[in-house]
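Supplementary notes for students who missed Thursday's class. We covered one full example, reproduced here. Read the sequence, then the structure, then the short commentary at the end.
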Amino acid sequence: MREKYPSDLNDKEWAFLEPLIPGEAKLGRPPRYSKREIANAIFYLVRSGCAWRMMPHDLPPWRICYHYFSKWKHEGVWEAIHDRLRDIVRTHHGKKKPQPLRLWTRKVLKQLITEESVDMMQANASWEERDTFSWTASG
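Structure (token representation):
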């Protein structure tokens, strides 16, 4: 058993996060580290500000922690945690829960965040910057 860090989750915090974190895969070998230990390691990294490779040796290896951090990011786990915390804080302060986006708005946003559209917007932005600069320099 390792010594606790100030960033470690207590039982109440873990009870809040556990349902939001995906479970283990059905196939394959059982995981070597618990999801709670991996979450503790990620929160240690965030709170201390250290690099992945500088994590203490009594936490799970940095590669495993980074793998789960990245996987949970792509699966939307961090966003779900944020949304749930935001809703709790809003209701605690007497505000209404924000309305979900309409279907057509979600469809448009999905189309706008594809790699192709992001590349196109960046190309247009850089073209406009060059055009503005040349216009102001010559004008």
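Commentary. The CA atoms of residues 18 and 135 lie 56 Å apart. The two ends are 71 Å apart (CA to CA). If anything here is unclear, bring it to office hours.
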